[in-house]
Amino acid sequence: MSDLITEAGASRVLFVDLHATQIQGFFSIPADNLRPDLSFVSFLADMKLTPENTTIIAPNAGGARRAQRVAGKMKCKIAILETRTVGDDKIVSVVGNLKENAVIFDDMIDTGERIRLAAPALKAHGAKQVYACATHAVLS
Length: 140
Description:
The chain is α/β, with parallel strands linked by helices.
């Protein structure tokens, strides 16, 4: 794919929130990964979400690095969601302590199932408000 893009005449490639930054290495032309972190942090600050009242939520262990990056910029703590299937049911557990606002940071929303399951678990664990931020809205 990288060769096709280069052969088509591109002189630079811009990505938005790559799943794996190693992809940039496949290109023989400059490839930049634009992260939405600062836009989200600015938006959340405008909403008056602060380190004193907010916990950043990783939707799973794989998203912990992304959540940690955003939490570091906001100076907030993080918590991680753990989801497992028992029979036909999905059980969501919260690992960590929550403040009144819980902000789920995910890279993609497809069906919204993860957020639909996470919100009640976060509220049961002490969050009063649950927000979600995502880079890619597939929405199938």
